[in-house]
Amino acid sequence: MDKWLNHPTSLKIISLALALLLWAVVHFDPESPSTVTATTDTKIYEAVTIHAEGLDEKAMALRVMEPSVVRMMVEGSRSDLLSASPDAYKVWVDLSGLSEGEHELTLRYELPSRVRLRDISPSRVKVELVSVQTKEFVAEVKTSGQPANGYKVGTPIVKPNSRVFVTLPKDRLDRVAMVGAIVNVDGVDENLVEKKVRLAAYDANGKEISDAVLNPNVVEVEVPITLPFKSLPLQLSYTGKLQNGLSIASIQPSVDTVTVYGPQEVLDQLEFYDGAVINLAAVKESGTIPLELKPTNGLTAVEPKQIEVNVELEPSETVTLPQLEVTMAGLSEGLEAAFAEPADGTIDIQVTGAPSVLAELTAKDVQVIADLNGLPPGQHEVRLDVHLPSSVTPGFAQPPVVSIHITDPAKEASAEAEPQEPAPEGEQAEQPQAEMEGGSQAEGGEAAGTGNSSGKAADGTGEAAAEPRQNGTNEGQESGNAG
Questions:
Q1: pTM of the model
Q2: Which of 47, 167, 343, 353 is deepest in the core (most CB within 10 A)?
Q3: Residue 407 CA from chain centroid, whole number
Q4: Rounded to an integer, what distance in angstroms lies between the CA atom of residue 183 and that of residue 205?
């Protein structure tokens, strides 16, 4: 092999071949018509999107751009056209520094390497710019779903505050009807729900305005979830007794109302809270007493949990309240009642209390009731119910008693209307004698008849021993005797 390469003839042949090859390369013309025809191609893109660049979105908004796409025809080698991505063909319009209103602008474009533009249609576009404005709104947070059984949803709280700024083109800003968020509380049984929520702007139909810019767009929301509650007046209760010789001059709790929590059916039945109980036996002197408030009667919680009660004590004093009117209550329908003793229906009552309290005590502060519930016609001894202010105690060991006469006018009227049956012959013979005796009794005085009638009533028979006229007379005489 080495001998062949070193041979003079072989070297001449190789030199000639290299010379011919170099000549061909030097004299080859790539611009000749036949070569261009063989390597150049064209391609059409029907809808290339026009982009807007240079727009100051804080000051202007692009309302209209017509058209939004263009037709492009490009040319280049087949390999370049095939290798270029559609995204490499870019068309845009420069909106830098433009004012509000309509403008007609020339399109700009960018092509892949070694690809040339032959045609773009259209070459110009019309744009309309609208100024952007910002308006302040108050964020509203609404809830969806139902919390656990018995719980109620309180008013949501937005943190750090509810101020939200909404930015939109001025012709769309008026469409904003509400700015807020929705928090789902379905099945929640916690005391407080804390969530971060995204705010959005909504139109009057509740549809979100997606292109609205909100600041802030995320806020923290607290949604109180509590049991049903109700505010009730506080009513103090007492156990035990003060030591002898002391009475309450004043007692004042630190609050007048409390808030109770519990099932709604329990709250509906309560008109006051009486779970504040003071043990009077433990009160030795004037001062402030801490008092714990506990849930009672099916309640789950009470707020506040503890109160203070200021108690003022004074040495006791006993006085007599004269001629207090006795009120009759509970009389059955159709019956009538009148006082037999005392006839005027008033009594004197002894009461004990602090001198400062008794000095302001009047007959209007004391209620004396005769309970006639279930009593039939006749004369009855009725124990009175004496209702006194909480700081005043009765000065008697047993409640006083009054005598009350009850009648049934309808029954007496029907008895008077009944016809008398003829007496047998034997009784008819005795009738004149009876009438004479009756006349003698009448001459002897009506008082005897009155005493008999009263005696029957006191026996509790409930029977009318005389005719209606005589009953009326007897009642009047009884009242006169009692007086």
A1: 0.42
A2: 353
A3: 55
A4: 19
As a whole-number percent, the residues of the chain with pLDDT over 70 amount to 81
206, 226, 246: which is the final residue of a domain? 226
DSSP letter assigned to residue 208: B
Amino acid (one-letter) located at 283? V
Encoding tokens for residue 123? Answer: 């070459």
Of 185, 176, 178, 198, nearest in space to 155 by CA = 185
Q: If we measure between CA atoms, which residue out of 290, 291, 235, 297 comes closest to residue 261?
A: 297
Residues sharing a CB contact under 8 Å with residue 406, sequence separation 6 or more, in sequence order: 331, 335, 336, 337, 372, 375, 376, 377, 378, 379, 380
- 367/399 Cα distance (integer angstroms): 13
Residue 247: how many other CB atoms lie within 10 Å:
21
Query: To the nearest 10°, the Cα dihedral for 207, 213, 216, 218?
Result: 50
Q: Which domain holds residue 168?
A: 132-226
The ranges of the chain with pLDDT < 50 are 31-38, 426-483
- What pLDDT was estimated at residue 226? 79
Tokens of 459: 């026996």
The whole-number pLDDT of residue 82 equals 87
Strand partners, 106: 124
| Residue 379 lies inside a defined structural domain of this protein | no
> What's the total number of domains in the chain?
3
Q: Sheet containing 401-407: give its strands across.
A: 336-341, 401-407, 378-387, 367-371, 317-329, 346-353, 393-394
For residues 454 and 475, the answer to whether their CB atoms sit within 8 Å is: no
Of the candidates 263, 289, 315, which is a domain's last residue?
315
